[in-house]
Amino acid sequence: MTATAWLPEGWSHPLRVPLSTGHHLRPIRATDVDLDMQAVMGSQERLWSLYGDAWGWPPATMTAEQDHADLARHEAETERHESFNYALFDSGETELFGCVYIDPPILDGTDAEISWWVVDWLVGGPIEAALHEFVPRWIATDWPLGNPHYTHRQTQGDPA
């Protein structure tokens, strides 16, 4: 699917999006690999339960080189407006706490697939709750989407 098939020509994606928690979202970059590896592999089992069937991700073992290549692909897709991976960071970008994905539609009658996750230790806490509240409102106000499909599954409670 081409970018123009699901997003208007000339539309610009947000580059930095503040959250009420003091955290922010920004498009992930290949240079985020060290922070991403910690977040993903520290939550690998739960992330596999959420995304494994659909994406085969994240594998049980993943090298920094594999993650770097994956993040470089995400970065390039964002620049081409093919799909978007926004990372959730603290104010100094010293820790990555999760991601928000905005992808082309899969289901007829929708115009995007939206999902997100946080690291295991934030599951059920105020940062995850803020993200749950924020993402649908952000998509409705800042994205040219009329009928997004939210594939995010609630992860409240014990991550085990």
What does this structure look like?
The chain has about 160 residues and is an alpha+beta fold. Helix content is about 35%, strand content about 20%. The protein has 5 helices and 6 strands, in the order αββαααβββαβ. It has a 6-stranded mixed sheet, with helices on both faces. Helix 2 packs across helix 4 (about 65-80). It is globular, with a radius of gyration of 15 Å. The N and C termini lie far apart (about 35 Å).
Poorly predicted tracts of residues: 154-160
Number of strands: 6
Oligomer: single chain
User: What proportion of the residues is helical, as a percent range?
Assistant: 25-40%
What is the tally of helical segments?
Answer: 5
Give the structural class: alpha+beta
Overall, the morphology is globular
Span between N and C termini?
37 Å
**Strand line-up across the major sheet:** 1-2-3-4-5-6
